[in-house]
TrEMBL record:
Residues 1-21 form the signal peptide. InterPro entries: ARB_07466-like_C (IPR058593), Zn_M74/Hedgehog-like (IPR009045). Pfam families: VldE (PF26571). Transmembrane segments: none annotated. Residues 37-134 form the ARB-07466-like C-terminal domain. This is ARB-07466-like C-terminal domain-containing protein. Keywords: Signal. It comes from Mesorhabditis belari.
Length: 148
């Protein structure tokens, strides 16, 4: 039992060391103004997750939230969609949550589940169930500084 705990602790420390924290926290910033493309931190986040889990990534899309009128984080270039499914998608979801508050990640959505710092993980009822991709939204600080 002690050995298993040590392995889990070592793995957690190693994962956190792979990308250095930026002190951005996981506070939520709603999108309010479209930009002209992906934020630098979002590009680095997409690259980090693609190297780790594979899959295709998308960032920028000037549009409202699906089924709503509010601007999407994609319109500010602060959200990354990583096209993964099944267990690999769930591993990416869990990893994003585990590094969220150290790196400016404000929301993670996958397979009808959403995580935010204020709400924890719970059912997601948005019009897109996110069953074929993991959505990772950055706050403004994370959008500037993830992986910098």
């Amino acid at each position: 039992m002690k050995h298993g705990l040590f392995v889990l602790l070592f793995a957690a420390i190693f994962m956190l060391m792979e990308v250095e924290g930026n002190g951005c926290g996981c506070g939520y910033n709603y999108a309010n103004k479209a930009t002209d493309g992906p934020a630098p931190g979002a590009r680095r986040l997409a690259s980090y997750f693609k190297k780790r889990y594979g899959g295709r990534t998308e960032i920028y899309n000037n549009r409202p939230v699906r089924g709503g009128k509010n601007l999407s984080l994609h319109a500010e270039g602060r959200a990354v969609d990583i096209y993964l499914a099944g267990n690999n998608g769930r591993r990416a979801f869990d990893h994003a949550v585990s590094i969220a508050c150290a790196h400016g990640i404000q929301e993670v959505i996958f397979n009808r589940r959403i995580w935010t710092a204020n709400g924890g993980e719970h059912h997601y009822s948005g019009s897109n169930p996110h069953t074929d991709h993991v959505h990772i939204g950055l706050n403004r600080c994370g959008a500037r500084n993830f992986g910098a």
